[in-house]
Amino acid sequence: MSTFRIDPRLCAVCRGRGWCGLSYCPLLAKRIASYKLKRVTGSRELFGSSPPSVFVGRYGYPVVNIGPSAPPVTGDTSIYDLPEKWIDLKLEDILGYRWSLITGSRRIDVDAPRRGDSFLDKIYEVVLSIKPVDVELILEKPPRPVISFSEYEPPQGPRAPLEKVRVVANPRIPKPIDRVYNDFDLKASDAIILLYREGIPVSMIQKILSIGAVGYYRYRRLVPTRWSITAVDSTISEYLIDKIKNYQEINNIMVFLRRFYDNLFIVVFYPGKWSYEWMEAWWPGSTWNPSPSEVVVEADHEEYGGRTTYPEIGGCYYASRLAVAEYLYRIKRQATVIALREIYPGFNLPIGVWFVRENLRALLKSKPILVTSDFREVLELIDRETKLGVKKWVEKSYLLRKILYYKSILEYIGASEK
Amino acid sequence: MKLRFKDARTWRYTMNAVGKIIDEAAFRITSEGLRMKAIDPSRIVMVDFNLSKDSLDEFIYEKDEIIGVNMEDLVKILRRALKNDELELETIEGNRLAVVFIGRGRRTFIIPSLETIAEEVPELKIPFKVQIKMPPSIFRDVVKELEPISDAIEFIAKKDEEKLLARATSDLAEAEIELSIENGALIDFKAEEEEARAIYTVDYLSDISTASQAADELDFYFATAVPCKIDYTLPMGGRLTFYVAPRVE
Questions:
Q1: HEC profile for chain B?
Q2: Intra-chain end-to-end CA distance of chain A, in Å
Q3: Pairwise CB contact (< 8 Å): A409 & B123
Q4: Cα separation of A256 and A264, whole Å?
Q5: Which of A96, A261, A351, B3 is the most exposed place for a label (fewest CB within 10 A)?
Q6: Cα–Cα distance between B72 and A361 in angstroms, integer?
Q7: Is the pTM of this model over 0.80?
């Protein structure tokens, strides 16, 4: 249920200028999508190019909903489901893309990949392709073109049970994808790394994992989209961290900062061995904070040895860790990393963890705004730039406290007492 | 090099604790025996494991050697140690280490020796003011009881009252454990400072306290706002020592 309503009179005079305080215009976003969806109104048939895109649900596991998605548009539709490219777009456009993807789904057992399933074979044809594939979806009933707009549910296009799917064009399957798909003795985690090293976008690897197209043959299974995203972020970053641990430590403290649509990201690299912390502060009215007044702060961390439990903060922990690990791998250094995010009331979209991953990737392509050897300067910067203030961030942060309060045993070596 | 140690389980428990602190260890073999010193990745803890040749049942020394070991592998193997097993370590050709349990049968495990750049770990110089001797199990219990309360433990030694207080405080709860010779928790108490106070991270103390099972005695040294030294005396005279840097607010 929505608790947040915009006065329509305000919209009439604002016309997309952001007076409602949201970081996107809900009216415009809805308009973009419904314009595209107009063509399918009332029809059980959909012809379009799948970007490629697939959705695997998690409700009812181990019997889940799975199906290809396509917009009612043909041609190069890859942008409809490629978060790596979304960071340069306006939020309205991203929502427009997401809402105009129609999914025709069917319930099947997660074991289907190793049992063989003709429906799944067609999904493979679509999803393993690097280029959009033309598909014809015959749905059991026409999808309702109305987009439910809720502040709490992920933006999603119309869905309907699928009767039949026909792959009309020839898919183009890149070599590495073909190789891992046909290698029945390659572990799923090794396949993920192989694809990553071959330059396949992370969002693509996530789709390939979710349809059970990789791994030892007898263990192949469908992986709900939500789980596969985190599995891929976690597997790749773990691989990179393993390499990073062999590199030298950075010499100076570096701080990066980025503001994007009512979000603030700050990443601090501190000289030391690898360890990582991810923190988020949600303002009242932002996506995951229904409280009327209290700012909610969550934090999770790992030390050099890594984690053994799932972070309470969720999948964005791994999405952010991937971006940070990629950066350290690129500069061939290791460091203690503290990353934080503030989310202000205007940002009320549950948009997906790609938002964190791609924002941090963009942030780490920029220049650091501070390079210093004095940690006090970092604290001053955090205090100046964040709304929460440095005191509260330090209170919540395990690693900041560790840097501030824990002495190093090396301060007590005999020679230093000269 | 070849050495034999009476009780394989001593190695099992000590290396289990060491393996929680460091990933790789470089054991140095000299004519004096075996020694391993290392600092954990966050540079808060130093480990010093020392088996002099007197503590060994058999010690065949040929030349100075460094054996680099992946602790995860070593701990996994040592977990196989049973009661009444003896442990034999031998460097063998091709830069490998044989870990042999001699008890019911002779079980041999061979692991590669890593190429470690044996960093020279410096000697520490810490002005300790308090020295307390206690059964290792008491130390383990103190850490275990305070662990759920807070992420740090404050130790306070009161010279006049001859007692040690261990405290944990958080937003939710407070806990205090009082230890003295009188109440049977301590074996010996020496203090030069009227009141010594220091705070240490509970994570490290908890890892370290798992070695308690292997040890006969434990000496705990500290002073106000300096590192503490947790010194385990092992059966047959070996030593396992940890230094933990303090937390200062």
A1: CEEEECCHHHHHHHHHHHHHHCCEEEEEEECCEEEEEEECCCCCEEEEEEEEHHHCCEEECCCCEEEEEEHHHHHHHHCCCCCCCEEEEEEECCCEEEEEEEECEEEEEEEECECCCCCCCCCECCCCCEEEEECHHHHHHHHHHHCCCCCEEEEEEECCCCEEEEEEECCCCEEEEEEECCCCCCCEEEECCCEEEEEEEHHHHHHHHHHHHHCCEEEEEECCCCCEEEEEECHHHCEEEEEECCECC
A2: 68
A3: no
A4: 11
A5: A261
A6: 33
A7: yes
**Does B206 lie at the interface with A, CB-CB under 8 angstroms?**
no
| Average of per-residue pLDDT across A303-319 | 91
Residue B41 contacts A where some CB pair is shorter than 8 Å? yes
Q: Which residue of A has its CA nearest to B171?
A: A395
Minimal CA separation from B128 to chain A, in Å? 12
| Closest CA relative to residue A318, chosen from A281, A364, A353 | A353
pLDDT of A197: 97
Tokens found for residue A183: 């290698």
- Nearest residue, CB atoms, B243 vs list A304, A406, A409: A409
Task: Kindly report the number of other CB atoms within 10 A of residue B9's CB atom.
Answer: 18
Name the residue with tokens 């997309």.
A16
On chain B, the residues whose CB falls within 8 A of the CB of A308 are none
For residue A412, which residues of chain B lie inside 8 Å, CB to CB?
Answer: 124-126, 226-227, 243, 245
Question: From CA B24, how far away is CA B5, in angstroms rounded?
Answer: 22
* ipTM of the shown complex: 0.84
- Cβ contact (<8 Å) for B122 and A413? yes
Determine contact, residues B223/B30, Cβ cutoff 8 Å: no
Question: Does residue A412 sit at the B interface (CB-CB below 8 Å)?
Answer: yes
Distance in angstroms (rounded) separating the CA atoms of residues A282 and A295: 6
- A82-132 per-position pLDDT tens digit: 989 998 898 888 888 888 888 888 999 999 999 889 999 999 999 999 899
Q: Which residue has the tokens 């040592």?
A: B78
